[in-house]
């Protein structure tokens, strides 16, 4: 995976021209290698967490004026010696300095190798390392907060405590195996049952939190469906507050699906404008309609909009039946309220249908709130632990199954089988925090990082 005897180097800032570029070195020789290229103070004699001005030189040629930050092991991100060289952000300078550092004995870091080392050296557990990747990728306040919470160990601490209690039981049961002849019971079965129930409850909550966690991290696929001229494009524009989709008077002209992202309270709703769900008459339209049905099937939320001034109750019911046949519960929106009488609007309100005018932009904020609450059932208070990672979800689900096995066997199977079931549950829990890892798993996680992270 990574040979920690080697000192690695990579650009830590994005490549391309910028005001500064930060080159990071980590490993036993980081300070010595940097020192061999640095004209200024003797870096080997400087204290940790200090910054030094000087030149990087290749033989006698000055490559750049730089600032060098020193982090002496173990007080660094990787717990190894780390040097960060802030140079001018030109591709040429950055490349020349990295080449020079390689010539002096460093090797180019692999994707995620700095964070991998931080994990291997005990700086953070696996779920925290993954949170680093999430934090870098976060694109809204909510996703940033969820990643930060995980980075601070909220998620791991909760699991670690549970795992320790279960380990204790496992060892008591192991002890019973040593005294198999005497038929003693060290592990109180009622207490074990209670513990398993407690753990299952916590894990159940974590598993449930994935829906929200995933929505925060990935966004919610949302489809606006409705007949031609219902006002889908106008609604899309009203929601986005900009003129993006082309609004036209000819039915069925929004032929291509358009994707836009709408941010409501920190959740990204990926809005897909569609070609309508009525029976298609011509070939191009048909493709659009087929695509609409595919999009509807893939979406987590469907907003069905109709022209309330035009559509008859029969037509409306026929559309809703079609959606139902797809297994879709749609958020129903009556459009063109500006053309309705107040009695008609009142009647819609009474049946729980939101009446809006996409063109006049009335009741759009009510609609935004409805969209949010259709997708996000739970309340976010900013402190809860949310599972955002599919790998964690799967490990939690497998833990749940293993715990169910323990419960099933608790009164009937012998200690050795019970011990095996508990170990299985411990294994899956350990996969989340990295107490149990394989090279493949680590490869899979860290290869998704960028180089320099
Ligand atoms: P789409 O085919 O479903 O995308 O419908 P469009 O957004 O292109 O709208 C079709 C027509 O209905 C356009 O002429 C819009 O200006 C009009 N329209 C959209 N929303 C409203 C509304 O709230 N009130 C009225 N009176 N007309 C609207």
TrEMBL record:
Pfam families, A to Z: MMR_HSR1, MnmE_helical, TrmE_N
Organism encoding this protein: Mucilaginibacter panaciglaebae
Chief place of localization: cytoplasm
Cofactor comment text: Binds 1 potassium ion per subunit.
Iron-sulfur is among the record's keywords: no
Binding site for GTP: 229-234, 248-254, 273-276, 335-338, 357-359
Protein name: tRNA modification GTPase MnmE
UniProt record similarity statement: Belongs to the TRAFAC class TrmE-Era-EngA-EngB-Septin-like GTPase superfamily. TrmE GTPase family.
Localization per Swiss-Prot or TrEMBL: Cytoplasm
Cofactor(s) the record lists: K(+)
Known role: Exhibits a very high intrinsic GTPase hydrolysis rate. Involved in the addition of a carboxymethylaminomethyl (cmnm) group at the wobble position (U34) of certain tRNAs, forming tRNA-cmnm(5)s(2)U34.
EC number: 3.6.-.-
Binding site for K(+): 229, 248, 250, 253
Residues in TrmE-type G domain copies: 219-376
Keyword annotations from UniProtKB, A to Z: Cytoplasm, GTP-binding, Hydrolase, Magnesium, Metal-binding, Nucleotide-binding, Potassium, tRNA processing
Leading EC class: hydrolase
Assembly notes: Homodimer. Heterotetramer of two MnmE and two MnmG subunits.
Binding site for Mg(2+): 233, 254
Source taxonomy: Bacteria, Pseudomonadati, Bacteroidota, Sphingobacteriia, Sphingobacteriales
